[in-house]
Amino acid sequence: MPKFFIKTYGCQMNERDSEQVAHSLVARGYERVGHEAEADVVLLNTCSVRDMADQKALGKMGMLGRLAKERPHVVFGFLGCMAQARGGSLLKDLPHVDLVVGTQKFHRVAEYVDELVVKKTARPSGITDPSYRRMDDLRVSIVDIEKEAGSQSTIRNQQLTPTQATAFVSIMQGCNMHCTFCIVPQTRGAERSRSIDEIVAEVRDLVSRGVKEVTLLGQIVNLYGRHEFPKIDNKSAFVRLLESVHEVEGLERLRFTSPHPIGFRDDLIDAISRLPKLAEHVHLPLQSGSNRILKAMHRAYTAEKYLELVQRIRLARNGVAITTDIIVGFPGETDDDYRQTRDLVEDIQFDNAFVFRYSPRRDTPAAEMPDQIDENVKEERNQDLLEVVNTSNRRILQRLVGTQVEVLCEGPSKTNRARLMGRTRTNKIVVFPPSQKRRPSGEIEELVGELVNVRIERANGFSLYGMPRLE
Ligand code: SF4
User: Fold this and answer.
1) Are 9 and 37 in contact (CB under 8 A)?
2) I want to staple 78 with a disulfide (CB 3.0 to 4.6 A). Which of 83, 145, 353, 372 is the partner?
3) Cβ of 106: how many Cβ atoms within 10 Å?
4) pLDDT band for position 132 (50/70/90)?
């Protein structure tokens, strides 16, 4: 059967969409491989959130043109956000591309791939050369970037590895917030949510296959279901979803990302304080500490409200980690605006933050705003803010040295395959030696996929290092 390779750019939503595509190809008998050179189908699942992400995927596909010449039967496809934004125009500069599929059509990819594989390998009778490619088929390509009602419910299957203990669950698609810097509402469409029953059924199935931690995914995850499902007993659809997933027996940890600050109402703060499976980590995008810039970004909160929210979350759950996203160099950001962001970041002491230099995106209001900031200024602010964030991150990690933390072991460490890695409930990476645990029966048990208590011995960079405490 044909082999496929899929490369994913961008966020966790994209990772999840790629897994759905992989699942549907495997279900049709395709084999997944780890390198494009071995594949008969090469798919790039793209991201459009920053210009650099667009350029990376375009550059990669450009380089694959050589492979297309050497192996003309291979099917090449762009999926996801950039495919949605650029559509058929992608075929003009990259003629070896056969497939362009947008964000509401991931569930159709396997069917399109099947069709293209047949077309590109079909040979007229008498021709036996396996690399033959019909000239008229060179013009055959499939572009599907249409909207599809109900597409939010199509991201629901995934392949799991035998020891996989964590999984993402897509609960909604799209976003109606229209932040002025963001292209997502155009590439992902309007907000659409799956039903609570459907999501709980998926979580139950994952847990029955060994998953212990799920992360609920959405572009504005805590505004889940606001258009479809009414509040009941003053609880939003999102809080009711958290409660229902929390009840799944065997689930140990529950996470969600990415929320919007305006979706943190009293019912959600209350849920954070009373649902013990909710992990002690909230990713809370700040974007800017200047009210003037927040307004220009179309973020409907102030720096004061954000700070108050952080304090309420910290009061609701002891030891909760708070991480964030910040954009520096948004159009019109003065030194004073930047200083306000820096002061707020110092004040809050985030566990970690993703700091981005503002990158104009086509067809977004911010790209047209006057007073675009010089790249050198953006870079200076970026470096300066990273230093503030890294200092609080180091301080917080250092405080964990000498303590014992619960780690969900995910597998070998990426930087040292001889060691294992996992995450704490506060989402800190912990690296530890691959000791084995003995069951009461005397049998040796591997730690991968298990919850392990680890005594932290040192902190270095963004990771903690320790020794497992095995009974
Ligand atoms: S909330 Fe704003 S930044 Fe987040 S996806 Fe929606 S428009 Fe983009």
Assistant:
1) no
2) 83
3) 23
4) very low
At residue 26, what are phi and psi to the nearest 5 degrees? -60, -40
453 residue type, one letter: N
Give the dihedral sign, CA 128/132/136/142: positive
Determine whether the shortest distance from the Cβ of 175 to ligand 1 is under 6 A.
yes
- 251 HSE (CA, 13 A, CB side): 29
281 forms beta bridges with 321
What the block records as the tokens of 100 is 């362009």
The CA distance from 420 to 404, in Å, is 17
Q: Are 131 and 73 in contact (CB under 8 A)?
A: yes
Give, using CA atoms, the residue closest to atom 8 of ligand 1.
182
CA angle (370 as vertex; 365, 375 as ends), nearest 5: 95
Query: Would the pLDDT of 297 be above 90?
Result: yes
Between the CA of 296 and the centroid of ligand 1 the distance, in Å, is 14
Please tell me if the CB atom of residue 182 comes closer than 6 angstroms to any atom of ligand 1.
Answer: yes
Which of 48, 81, 182 has most ligand 1 atoms within 8 Å of CB, for mutation? 182
Ligand 1 centre and the CA of 210: distance in Å?
33
| CB of residue 72 inside a 6 A radius of ligand 1 | no
Adjacent-strand bridge partners of 322: 282
Nearest ligand 1 atom to the CA of 185 is 7
Establish how many alpha carbons lie within 13 A of residue 264's alpha carbon, considering only the half-sphere containing its beta carbon. Answer: 26
User: Given ligand 1 and candidates 179, 354, 361, which is best to mutate, with the most ligand atoms within 8 Å of its CB?
Assistant: 179
Token pair 């303590």 is found at 403
48 CB near ligand 1 (under 6 Å): no
Region 274-301: what's the mean pLDDT?
98
Nearest C-alpha to atom 4 of ligand 1 is from which residue?
219
> What pLDDT digit, counting tens, does each position of 139-162 carry?
578 999 999 899 888 888 888 888
pTM above 0.85, yes or no: yes
Q: Are strands 281-283 and 41-46 parallel, antiparallel or unpaired?
A: unpaired
Q: 184: Cβ below 6 Å to ligand 1? A: yes
Fill in the amino acid letter for 338. Answer: Y
Q: Is the CB of 177 under 6 A from ligand 1?
A: yes
Tokens 């909604």 map to which residue? 172
Say yes or no: CB of residue 185 within 6 Å of ligand 1: yes
Q: What is the pLDDT of residues 10-67, one digit of tens each?
A: 999 999 999 999 999 999 999 999 999 999 999 999 999 888 888 999 999 999 999 9
Sequence-distant (≥ 6) Cβ neighbours of residue 173 within 8 angstroms: 103, 104, 151, 152, 155, 188, 189, 191, 192, 218, 219
